[in-house]
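re: ur question from yesterday

yeah so i grabbed the chain u mentioned. its 82 aa long if i counted rite. heres the sequnce exactly as i have it in my notes:
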Amino acid sequence: MNIGIFTDTYYPQVSGVATSIKTLREQLEKQGHTAYIFTTTDPNVDKSIYERNIFRFSSIPFISFTDRRIAVRGLFHAYQVA
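ran it thru and got these structure tokens back, copy pasting raw so excuse formatting
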């Protein structure tokens, strides 16, 4: 089964949500599913490292929580992948 997970926080960010989603993805793939992660860009991600089925969309810092980001575009690309 193809499964899409949409989140505003994902590894390497450190949070319970990021860790839970990474673990969920790993377990789904162990069961034979294909998991796609749709998330925001992260300035701490090494851009030279390719992560299969991880799609990072252009984003800006959220006003109240600058360590969190909001996607500003990418919905059409997510639709094409789906």
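noticed a couple things. The chain has one domain: 2-81. also The CA atoms of residues 55 and 70 lie 14 Å apart.
anyway ttyl
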